[in-house]
Amino acid sequence: SARGTAEIALYDPSRILINATLSQPGVLVLSENYHPDWQVRVDGQPAKQLQAYHTLRAVALPPGSHRVEFSIVPRYYRLGTALTLSAATLLAFVGLATVVRRKSAHQPAAS
User: Alpha-carbon distance 33 to 31, whole Å?
Assistant: First the structure.
């Protein structure tokens, strides 16, 4: 049984920062529902999010003091961003092609 402490430093809907100290290896369990879109970093390094008790978020920690960050960027947000950027790029190319075509159509023919 690991002994330790955990203190929530920041709690936002999309980001949770926790300062944790353990005397031996252990698992930090949040009473927050597990979802695969959540990512976890321990001391700034990516870590594997675990599923505790079939429904909660967790992360394994080695002994010592650690800064644990859970953050989420929903996959539909990422998909929407990618689609928006793709559409904007396509519209920019279509607009540029239209301008170039109009300029070339209005230039007098060389004799």
Answer: 7
Token output for 11: 């709690």
Q: Report the b/e string of 62-95 with b at 16+ CB within 10 A.
A: eeeebebbbebeeeeeeeeeeeeeeeeeeeeeee
DSSP string, 67-109: EEEEEE--HHHHHHHHHHHHHHHHHHHHHHHHHHHHHHHHSPP
Residue listed under structure tokens 């675990």: 50
**Per-residue confidence of the chain (111 residues) as pLDDT tens digits?**
568 999 999 999 999 999 999 999 999 999 999 999 999 999 999 999 999 999 999 999 999 999 999 999 777 777 788 889 888 899 999 888 888 888 887 776 665
Query: In degrees rounded to 5, what are phi and psi of residue 37?
Result: -75, -15
Check: pTM over 0.90? Answer yes or no: no
